[in-house]
Predict the 3D structure of the following.
Amino acid sequence: MGSLEPQIAEWRAYVGNAPGVNGRDVDELEDHLRQQIADLNAVGLAEDEAFLVAVKRMGDVDVLSREFAREHSGRLWKQLLASGDDEPAHAAGGWLEALAFGAAAAVVVHVARVAAGFPDEEPTWFFRNVTLFVLPFLAGYFAYRRRLDAGGWVLTALPFAIAAVVVNVYPWDADSSTEMLVALHLPVTLWFVCALPYMGGTLRSHERRMDFVRFSGEWFIYYVLIALGGGVLVGLMYAIFEPTGVDADQIIEWVLPAGAAGAVIVAAWLVESKQRVVENMAPVLTMLFTPLFAVMLAGAAVVYAVTGLGDAFDRDLVSVFDALLLVVLGLVLYGMSAREPTAQPSWMDRIQLVAVASALVLDLMVLATMVARIGDLGFTPNRTAAIGLNLVLLANLAGAAWLSARFLTRRSTAHRLERWQTTYLPVFALWAATVVVVLPLAFTFG
Amino acid sequence: MESAIHIDKDLVAASATPLVLAILAEGESYGYAILKRVRALSGGELEWTDGMLYPLLHRLERFGHVKTEWRTPPEGRRRKYYVITKDGRAALAEQQRQWAAVSRALNNVWPGGGLMAAVGEA
């Protein structure tokens, strides 16, 4: 079918440009097309007729592309489909609304700051509430972008309202440790609440949950980048104003909180509309840091297994351990979200298993020590929150290690592993919410 | 087919997975051959848009129901072969149970047993 080659090449290029379809898929489709043409040729159709019929049978490229995109939403993320009916159409243009929501968050933060008399006074209600000043605007931004209906808005607003009531109505003791724990866990809880409008009412979809994980990772990268830029700005501001005798603190007092609050929404907008920029960074970052963390964790597991935790173990170390475990979990989740779902087990998956298994060992040691300590000294709010978090992590890591070992020995699929993590996500949200709502009650706000 | 029946889109979509799995249970195959087999099996009454087969196959791969392999036959182009897995056979068995139940129910309610068993009773 020599004379058809240019036409086939053109068709190939056209299909290859469609979002959600990658090079390998095009190979497969082209093979199909050629066989169809050959068969039609054999029953007497002329070459160009055969080509037309074969292309028609293959189906409308837009419809086909949408079907591919639905199956490979990870690829779609990389290519960002601006048209199509699944996603809102205004992809790149929405900077004005992002800015509006960001500015609103900044204003609220400042009103609260002035009301609190910060930084001369540091009332605890300010720290307790600080995420409530910002994250509702992020949720609102998503609700607006996803064009949620009234029910969706109410459903999104409800958890924030409950959180606001709980945090401000509970009669906290002075120097209350549950109050501290609430300040730590509320951001996590509310971040998961933002998943509600982000996913636009498709909470059950595991693919969309993975999208939210992906979003969280990208958001974090953007936020850090913005913070770095902000740091340079602040540093230079000090340097440039110092000789003039202008007190830069006066300015920074206004710029910094506004920037930190606004950046939350701006970073979300960047992730939503400028994914192309970061798309190649995410896999590279996980590729870079997963091995490093794996080595560090394995080393720590060995050292602590030899020396034991007993002497070095105190509250600070527990926080360090928990932070480390959470970072590992974040890396694993994020790496998973960037992974091609049907790829064969690779060395990266092995390294990830090393990281997860070492984290599991560390977590077990922490738990054993903590159980012993609680046996001696009883429950306190901090110990309860820590042991709960460690149990939640333990179950997650154990499941992940088991499934990824099965995957590496080819007795299971990466899809199972992914499912495990996306199924588990609500557990984290529920645990954080429990600490916020139930723990203060259980310890009578102490 | 002279008396071509137009099969409802939803029904075509619902039957696609068991059909593909059953075809692969007969032996490994590749896209175009699977599609030809579907046409032959249904006497041309099941009209698929060719391209749609591939997202379906990729979904089955992601679920671990099939495995894939690129191979180049001696006289041809590189081609992606699909092989059913143990999980895939289990999924097929489950689908067969479900379809048999549906077909039983329809047979019972349609007098004269107008419906041939859509799926061979296991």
Summary: Chain A is about 80% helix and 0% strand.
